Amino acid sequence: MALRARALYDFRSENPGEISLREHEVLSLCSEQDIEGWLEGVNSRGDRGLFPASYVQVIRAPAAEPPPPARYANVPVGGFEPLPPPAAFKPAAQQPPPEPFPPPPAGYPFPPYGGSYQPSQGSDDDWDDDWDDSSTVADEPGALGSSYPDYEAAGGGASGRYRLSTRSEPSLGPRGAGHPPGHPHPPGGGGAAKSSATVSRNLNRFSTFVKSGGEAFVLGEASGFVKDGDKLCVVLGPRGPEWQENPYPFQCSIEDPTKQTKFKGMKSYIAYKLVPSHTGQQVHRRYKHFDWLYGRLAEKFPVISVPHLPEKQATGRFEEDFISKRRKGLAWWMDHMCSHPVLAQCDAFQHFLTCPSTDEKAWKQGKRKAEKDEMVGANFFLTISVPTGPGASLDLQEVESQVDGFKAFTKKMDESALQLNHTANEFARKQVTGFKKEYQKVGHSFKCLSQAFELDQQAFSAGLNQAIAFTAKAYDAIGDLFADQPRQDLDAVMDLLALYQGHLANFPDIIHVQKGALTKVKESKRHVEEGKMELQKAEGIQERCNIISFATLAEINHFHKIRVRDFKSQMQHFLQQQILFFQKVTQKLEEALHKYDSV
Asked: Of 178-187, 258-267, 444-453, 590-599, which gets the smallest average pLDDT?
C-alpha cells in the first residue's frame, strides 16, 4: 500500500520544486524519510514536489514494499545557484504551524534520477488489475520484442556489446580500444596527476542537471555496457547535428475507442485499437498503458522531448465528446512518437506497439525488462554516439549562442501559443453559442414577418411569403453551421497547440542539462589556466560536454523540422475548412435568393 499523509495546515509553495497543501488534504508520499525537514509527495491535484514534513501527519498503514527511488517532477529549470530557503505561508488554522526546515545542504545524498516512474494522482485508469501484477516474470528471453545474448564477463564475450566508462580506470586499456566512435575514453592509469583540483558539484542537488545524471556523466562517473541496438547516433546534416534517421519508418493509427468491462462488469474502461503500419497487426491499449510508456520514456531520455499525453480526467470519462477528443490527442501523440528517430526505435515503444493484447505473460516480460533498463541516468549518455574526425568538433561558444537563441524562441512561441489557444477557444465559444443564437434570432424575425404576411389572402403575395419563410430557414441553418464549425477547424488547431505546449514545457529541462555541462567545461578550463588541473582531464570533460551538446542540437533541429511540417499541414487544413464553411454559408444564401426570382 502506498505511503500516505494528511495535511495538518495550509502551505503555499513559493519556490520551484515545492507544492501547495490544503488542510486535511490526503497526499501520497514518495518516501517516509524526510530530507532535512522536507518530504516529497503528490497532492490531490496531481502536483509532485516538496513540502515541510512538520505540516503533515503520516497515515500509518501496512506497506507492501519500499517505494522505488523518486523522480522529482517539479524541479527548477534555470540557474545554477542553490534554491533559497522556501518561506512558508502562515496557515489559516488557529494554531500556527511549525516553521519548515530550510532546504537540504549541498552534498546531501539524493536518490538517482533513474527511479521508477509513478503515474500522477487523479489518473482516470486504476492500476489494481492483473496487468500490473507485482510478481516478476521478466528476465526471460524474448521480452521487448528481441532477445539479446547473455554476457558472462564484464568485458563482453560477444560482438555488438561494449563496455563504456567515463571513470579513470587503468584496467580499461588505452584510448579507443574496443569502443565505438563518438565516446570519450578516460586516460590510462599511467602518470601522476600534477594536482588534486576537481570540478565542483552543483550546490543545488534538485536541479535537472544533477537528477538527470548529466553532472555525473560530465564529471566522469558513468560506466556501463552498451549494446549496438542501444546506440543513439547523431550525424551532421545540412542544418547541423541531427538524429540519424530511422531506416524503417512507420506510422500507427489509433481507432475505434470502445468501452469494455471486467470483474463481471464492476469496472469499466476505454480501449483503443492501435494498428502499426510496419506489422499490420492490431493491438488494444488502455490509457494507463500510454501513461506507463510515457513515464518510462520521459525517465530514460533526459535530452529528448517526449510528447505529453492528453490530460487525464476523473469524471465524464465515458462521454462521447471526451472520448473523441482524447483519441485525437492520442493520435497526435502517436504521430510525434513515430516521427522521432530515437523514440520510434525504442524497445519499450516497440513492445507497446507489437505485444499481443491477449498475451499477458509477454506483456509483463517486456514491461519488467523496460523497468529494469540500466541505460538511464548518467549511463544514458553513454549510448549517444557523435561524429568524430576533422570538422566534427563543436565550438562551445557557438553552441551556447544557438541554445540561447532557441531558449528565446521557445519562450516567445509559448507565449504566442497561449494567446492563440485563448483566442481560438473564445472564438469557438462565440460560434457555438453567440453566433448561432444571433443568426437564429434573425431567422426567427424573418419567420415572424412571413407569418404576418400570410394574413393577406391575396394569391399574388403567396410567393413572397414562401420566399421569406425560406430565408428564415436559411438563417437558422447558417446558425447551426456556425455552431458545428469549430469541430472542423479550430478544435484541430487547439489540439496541435496543446501538443506543442507540452514540448515547450520539456525544453527548459533539456537546455538546463546542456547549460550545466557547459558550466563544468568553463570551470575545468579555469583550473587548467591556474595550473590546478591536467589538460587531459579537462579535455575529457569537454568531450563529454560535446556529446550532450550534439544531442541537444539534434533534438532542437528535430523540433524545428517537425514544427514546420505540423503547422504547415494544420494551417492548410484550417484555411481549407474555413473556405468550405463560407461556401456552405454562401450556398444557403444563394438558395434563399433564388426563391425571389419567381415572385
From this structure: 178-187
